[in-house]
Amino acid sequence: MSFAGLYLLMLKATLSSFSGLASLPILREDFVLKYHLLTDRQLNTALVIGRTTPGPKGLYIISLGYYSGGTPGAIAAWLALLTPALLVIPLLLLAGRKANHPRVRQVLNAIVLGSAGISLSATLPLAADAIHTTLGYVLAGGSLAVLLLREKLETVWVIAGAALITLAAALISRAM
Amino acid sequence: MGSADAPLSPKVPLGALAGVFLRIGNLTFGGGNPTVAALQRELVDNRKWLERTQFALCYALARMTPGTNLFAFDTAAGWLMGGWRGALLCVLVASIPCCLIVAILTAFFDLWSGQRLVAAAIDGALAASVGILLASFWFLVSPYIAKTTWVRSCVIVLLSIGLSFGAGLTPIAVLAVSALVGFFWKEPARE
Fold first, then answer.
1. Angle at which helices A134-149 and B116-141 pack, to 10 degrees?
2. Residue B6 near chain A (CB below 8 Å)
3. What pLDDT, in 10s, does the model give residues A137-167?
4. Mutation site, A34, A52, A63, A89, interface B, largest B CB count within 10 A
5. What is the ipTM of this complex?
6. Per-residue burial over B154-185, b = 16 or more CB atoms within 10 Å of its CB, e = otherwise
7. Best mutation site among A59, A83, A92, A153 for testing chain B: the one with the most B CBs within 10 Å?
C-alpha cells in the first residue's frame, strides 16, 4: 500500500477515537481483516511495544505502521498521530467557552463509553491469538488483577514481570 | 475558564519550552496522565508560563480532540505559550524521540523474536497485554459508573459491544450510535 494510503487509513482511526487504545478496533478492521497488512500477532506485538516505551499509550500505531510499510509506514503513522492534535487550535479559538456546555460533554462522554465497548469487543480475538497455554491465561488474569489493585503501577513492569515468568518457565522446561 | 485568545506569554523562550517538553514528553512512562501531571508542575507551578485556568482549558479541550490526547495537549499548551511556533515546537519535540524509540524497538523485535527463549518472554508479554487491555477498559468506564449514571453508562457500553461484536457494525458506526444516544439521553447529575 502507498504511503498516502497508509496515512489515510491510520488517520481514519486516529480521527475516530478519543483515547490511546480506542483506535485499536478500527485499525484491526482495516489492517488485519480488510487489507491483510498485518496479522493479529503483529498487532498484539505492536501493543506490547507501545506500552513499554515512554510517551502516550497510542504509540503502538508507530509499530503498526512499521510492520505495514517499514520506515515510510512508521512516518505515516507519526503524521496520522499528529494531524488530529492540530484540531485543538481551532477548538481553542472557537469553542473554548463552550467546552463545558452540558450537551457537548454528555455526547463526548457517550462516545468514550462507546469506544470502551468497542475496545472490549476487539480484545477477545486478540486474546485468542495471544493466549495458548494455562500459564498464558494465568498471566492475563494476573496482569488484570495487579493493575486493578495497583492503579499507579506502570504497565511496563507488568509486561516485564510476565515476560520474566514465561522466560523462567521456558528455562525450567529446558533444564528438565 | 481562562482566555483562549492570543498567546498568553509571548516571551516564553522557545529553547527552554522545547527542553521542558522534550524531557517530560519522552522520559515519562505510564501514558498521558502522568505526563500531563508532570507538565502542570513545570509549566504552572515552577515556571509560571501558564495560569492554572489556561492549563485546565488545554486539558479539557485535548480530551475533546480526537486522537492522542497528550499530543493535542502539547499543541494547545504550546499555542498558548508561543503561538504557531510554540504549538509545532512542543508537539514535535514531545513526539519525535518517543516515536523513534518505538520504531527502533519494532525493527529489532523481529530479530530477537526468532530465538526460543526470547519467543517465550514475548509470549508472556503478549498474555500480559490482554490483561492490560481489560484493565484499560475498566479504567475508561469506571469514572462513569456512579450512583446516578451507571444505568446510562452500562446501556451505552453494552449497546456498543452488541453492535460491534454481535451485529458486526463498524467502529465508526457504533461511535455514531453512541453519540446519538448520548445526545438524546441526558446525563443524570452526579450526587
1. 40
2. no
3. 999 999 999 988 987 676 667 878 998 999 9
4. A89
5. 0.70
6. eebbebbbebbbeeebbbbebbebbbebbeee
7. A92
Q: Which residues of B touch A27 (CB under 8 A)?
A: none
Q: Which residue of A63, A99, A120 is in closest CB contact with B64?
A: A99
**Is residue A116 a contact partner of residue B137, using CB atoms and an 8 Å limit?**
yes
CA dist B13 and A146 (Å) reads: 43
Q: What are A81's three cell numbers?
A: 498521530
| Cβ pair B23, B98 in contact under 8 A | no
pLDDT < 70 regions, chain B? 1-11, 29-31, 33-34, 37, 112-114, 190-191
Identify the three-state secondary structure at position B149: coil
Instruction: State whether A87 and B72 contact (CB < 8 Å).
Output: yes
Helix/strand/coil percentages in chain B, nearest 5? 75, 0, 25
Cβ pair B120, A166 in contact under 8 A: yes
Which amino acid is present at A64? L
Angle at A70 between CA A68 and CA A71, to 5 degrees: 130
Grid cell, residue A65, equals 505502521
Residues of A in contact with B116 (CB under 8 A): 170
Tell me what pLDDT residue B2 has.
41
